[in-house]
Amino acid sequence: MSECTHDCSSCGADCASRKQESLLEAQNAHSNVKKVIAVVSGKGGVGKSLVTGLLATLTRRNGASAAVLDADITGPSIPKMFGVRDKAMGSEDGILPAESRTGVKMMSVNLLLENDTDPVIWRGALIAGTVRQFWTDVAWGDVDYMFVDMPPGTGDVPLTVFQSLPVDGIIIVTSPQELVGMIVEKAVNMAKMMNIPVLGIVENMSWVACPDCGKKIYPFGESRTAQIVKGHGIPLLAQLPIDPALARACDTGVIELFNEDWMDAAVAAVENCPKRKISE
Description:
- It is a single chain.
- By secondary structure, this protein is an alpha/beta fold.
- It has a single domain (27-271), classed as P-loop containing nucleotide triphosphate hydrolases (Rossmann fold).
- The protein is 27% helix and 22% strand.
- The protein has eight helices and eleven strands.
- The protein has helices at residues 48-61, 78-81, 124-136, 156-164, 180-193, 225-230, 244-251, 264-271, and strands at residues 31-40, 66-70, 89-91, 94-96, 98-99, 105-107, 141-149, 169-174, 198-209, 216-217, 236-241.
- Strands 1, 2, 5, 6, 7, 8, 9, 10 and 11 form a nine-stranded mixed sheet that branches. Strands 3-4 form a two-stranded antiparallel ribbon.
- A hairpin with a 2-residue loop joins strand 3 and strand 4 (94-96).
- Helix 3 packs parallel to helix 4 (156-164).
- The mean pLDDT is 88.
């Protein structure tokens, strides 16, 4: 028997790893989530939660129902970004997600903790189980687009999400530094191994506008991200600037006031993403 390459597209073996549907968890009986988009990064600190929040904000603004499943259990930031302070409540239907001012639904561990600053000191299995319960035990209602804000890397939680949730597509968030190219390739390769399409790349902290003339300044040097993704046939969907106003909006819980066109192509990629067919 030959060694497994994890490339199911070129393999005829009928092994357990091909049957992803056997690992999928059923969503709550009071949930009707139509598409699931995972927002991932190979390393921390590149703005993954920012991109998640913007995608939810903009798809909701376009008239769709949007939700965020905050899978970054040890570093949750979604509720603060949307200015949500009320704790999650429960009913006989399950846990009820919190909602932002514009109606973006969300579930995060910070909505369950007594204090937002309480640390979550859990082992990987418990963290992964909590993420799974955010899918199975939360009564999400009707949701057109659910965005899963993933922790960085390719560990327990990303694997749990890719195997347990019907993820339709992935958006990878990166930054311009050359070192990040290697990290991006890790995320792309994991997506290929899990047979989930990558919708595109969003590069954060790409440039800053000169306060005097408006000219773009590249503090990390010219980006190589476009060259890296070209070899994989993946589009570069957005290059976000370092913008003090946007950072301030996130810090003060008013990300929904964002009103730039930087993310238009990324939103279009989400809205045009086909529902992934999971074979029997």
